[in-house]
Amino acid sequence: MSLRGFRFPLACLAASYAVLGAVIVAGYHYFPGLLATHFGADDQPDGWMTRGGCVRFLVALGLGAPGIILLAAFLAARTSLRHFNWNGRTVEIPRDRAPEVSLFLRRMGLWYACLLVLFIAGAQTSVLISNVGTAPAHLNRYVFALVLLLFAIGNGLVARRIIRYFLALSKERPLSRAPGQLIG
Q1: Which range of residues forms the domain containing residue 139?
Q2: In total, how many domains does the chain have?
Q3: What are the pLDDT digits (tens) for 70-95?
Q4: Which of 39, 50, 90, 112 could be 139's S-S partner, Cβ–Cβ 3.0 to 4.6 Å?
Q5: Is residue 21 part of a domain?
Q6: Could you give the CA distance from residue 173 to residue 53 in angstroms, rounded to a whole number?
């Protein structure tokens, strides 16, 4: 596989992991031995973890969740892409376009993994801010809301790109099957 078209998303994914690593390392030095990791509707902590447990959880989550996304994108791209469902109809992918669709799915998987790693880093930053300097721990709603807003915007941008790509592809090829009709 050529790296053409993949260098920038791979660099962004590496930078995202560097941000997550920095948050984990910085947090480890500032966290108390026991830290609040979950907060109720009243912004009060209702779940705790040890510092080491939190680091292990973040490493597992930071590698696992994006890893599943990447695995799914790369496995989907390796299958024989012949059809996709668009707006309740099955659209055939021209054979000559299948390699391009595979590359697109892989790139989108990389971008979404990058977004997910940054969300995990942002959520951990929110936990860090909530545990440092305040006694007792108290959720900072503004930081958490900012993290959620940025994640929602990122999801919207990725979804918009995917929708535009497959919409353009569906206009190139006539809709081939009625809704609910099985693919043979």
Answers
A1: 7-175
A2: 1
A3: 888 888 767 766 777 766 777 777 77
A4: 39
A5: yes
A6: 52
pTM of whole model > 0.85? no
pLDDT in tens, 12-25: 999 999 999 998 88
Write a three-state SS string for the chain: CCCCCCHHHHHHHHHHHHHHHHHHHHHHHHCCCEEEEEECCCCCEEEEEEHHHHHHHHHHHHHHHHHHHHHHHHHHHHCCCCEEEECCEEEECCHHHHHHHHHHHHHHHHHHHHHHHHHHHHHHHHHHHHHCCCCCCCCCHHHHHHHHHHHHHHHHHHHHHHHHHHHHHHHHCCEEECCCCCCC
Residue type, 157: L
Per residue in 78-137, pLDDT (tens digit) is 776 677 776 677 777 777 788 888 888 888 889 999 999 999 998 888 888 877 766 666
Q: What is the pLDDT of residue 182?
A: 43
Q: Does residue 56 sit within a domain?
A: yes
In a domain, residue 103? The reply is: yes
Asked whether residue 2 is domain-assigned, the answer is: no
